[in-house]
Specification:
It is built from nine helices and no strands. By secondary structure, the protein is mainly alpha-helical. It folds into two domains: about 60 residues, no CATH class; about 120 residues, Four Helix Bundle (Hemerythrin (Met), subunit A) (Up-down Bundle), CATH 1.20.120.1560. The radius of gyration is 28 Å and the shape is elongated.
């Protein structure tokens, strides 16, 4: 609405054609919003540093970002512009938090099942093949030449143990956090995504072997 009003104002006062008025309004908006514009990668460390330099918030996870819906400034904006009334905004916030919770729960279960039922068994199978290879070489009387295989065996053991431990930790965190009321959304989502990233990194490490 403001954009249209600004364009019409220029057309009436300055006698400009519509295209020229639109361009002038857009240029003014770009200048006004320059403080929050960034042409680089918003996920990079460069943006984190730039945001801090500009005095901007840089929320990196979903739950704290959703909390901005309920700030006095946001509530005033939505209510004043007629987008939501206060009750509708609270309902939307609760739904977004609830959906995020369900998504994290589902992803956690799927990731845990994949790790325990697929990744670890395949890693153990590969490890057993390496062990059989090393034992076969030793049985032939070789004293060296299998150092790489032995190193891989040890690395696989480490990764398997880390994946298993983090799956267990994720399951326990999920059981504990799911009992909390939805009002504690911000705390509810801390442990599980952390386990997600730890498990995923170890799975990638195993697949690279």
């Amino acid at each position: 609405m403001k954009f249209k009003a600004d364009v019409e104002k220029l057309k009436e006062k300055g006698g400009e054609k519509q295209e020229g008025a639109i361009m002038r309004v857009l240029k003014s908006y770009i200048k006004e919003s320059r403080r929050i514009l960034f042409e680089g990668d918003n996920y990079s460390d460069a943006w984190a540093a730039e945001a801090k330099k500009r005095g901007l918030s840089n929320v990196k996870t979903t739950p704290p970002a959703l909390d901005f819906y309920m700030t006095p400034k946001a509530q005033d904006l939505f209510v004043r512009t007629g987008v939501f009334n206060k009750r509708e905004l609270e309902a939307r916030y609760d739904i977004l938090c609830h959906n995020y919770t369900l998504r994290i729960q589902l992803e956690g279960r799927v990731l845990g099942e994949m790790a325990i039922n697929r990744v670890i068994p395949d890693a153990v199978k590969y490890q057993n093949n390496l062990i059989a290879n090393v034992n076969g070489l030793k049985a032939m009387g070789m004293k060296k030449g299998f150092e790489a295989q032995e190193k891989l065996i040890q690395e696989l053991s480490n990764h398997i143990q880390v994946v298993y431990n983090n799956v267990e930790s994720m399951i326990e965190a999920r059981k504990k956090q799911i009992r909390l009321k939805i009002q504690t959304n911000k705390q509810k989502h801390i442990a599980i995504p952390l386990s997600h990233s730890l498990i995923s990194s170890e799975i990638v490490a195993i697949k690279l072997k």
